[in-house]
Amino acid sequence: MKIYMIRHTSVGVPKGTCYGWTDVPVADTFEQEASETKRNLESMLGDNKLDIVYSSPLTRARKLASFCGYDNHVTDDRLKEMNMGDWEMMRYDDIESKDPAILKWYNDYMNLAATNGESYRLLYQRVANFLDELRKKDYENVAIFAHGGVLICAGVYAHLFPEDDCFRHLTPYGGIQEIEL
């Protein structure tokens, strides 16, 4: 099964803002970025047709799926970005002064969770659960519109890169990562 993992386009929040599960708006450059993503996806697909299209339920992923012509996408909560808990919508610089736990998180973000949020391990577990389930389906070509953290987890799951080096492989906004299951 070939899976096209598509990261949402740029978001309309100030740089340095911590967001994850928050349903933030897309940036003003959405149409330009989405047009490029759509062209790239069509080029990658060639004559292949998608059997199914999944999306995170967050607007930034669903909007890109619809723009690319997939209004009938199936949403799944397991495709949401990492839950950043109490840090959602705070600037990282401000979090340091309000919650010293972030300093420990910086040093062990693979294992520690954001305060009242998720760790990378929890995010990986839910993405792996989704992919384990998907693996049992009789599909040839699948598209998933999601988030940077989800794409990183899928890349580790599919052995594209090692877990200890995974954050160096963050797909850019509107980028596409191809995996095979």
Layout of SSEs?
Blueprint: E1 2-7, E2 17-18, H1 30-45, E3 52-55, H2 59-67, E4 74-75, E5 90-91, H3 92-98, H4 101-107, H5 120-135, E6 141-146, H6 148-157, E7 176-180
Parallel strand pairs: 1-6, 3-4, 3-6
Antiparallel strand pairs: 1-7, 2-5
Helix pairs in contact: 5-6
What does this structure look like?
With 181 residues, the protein is of the alpha/beta class. It has six helices and seven strands. Helix 2 links the parallel strand 3 (52-55) and strand 4 (74-75). The longest helix is centred in the first third of the chain and has 16 residues, at 30-45.
What are the main properties of this structure?
181 residues; alpha/beta; 5-stranded mixed sheet; two-stranded antiparallel sheet; 15% strand; globular
Low-confidence stretches: none
Roughly how many Å apart are the termini?
5 Å
What is the element string, with H for helices and E for strands? EEHEHEEHHHEHE
Give the strand line-up of the largest sheet. 4-3-6-1-7
Count of individual helical segments: 6
Chain-averaged pLDDT: 97
Question: How many β-strand stretches?
Answer: 7
Task: Provide a brief overview of the structure.
This protein has about 180 residues and is of the alpha/beta class. It has 6 helices and 7 strands; from the N terminus they run ββαβαββαααβαβ.
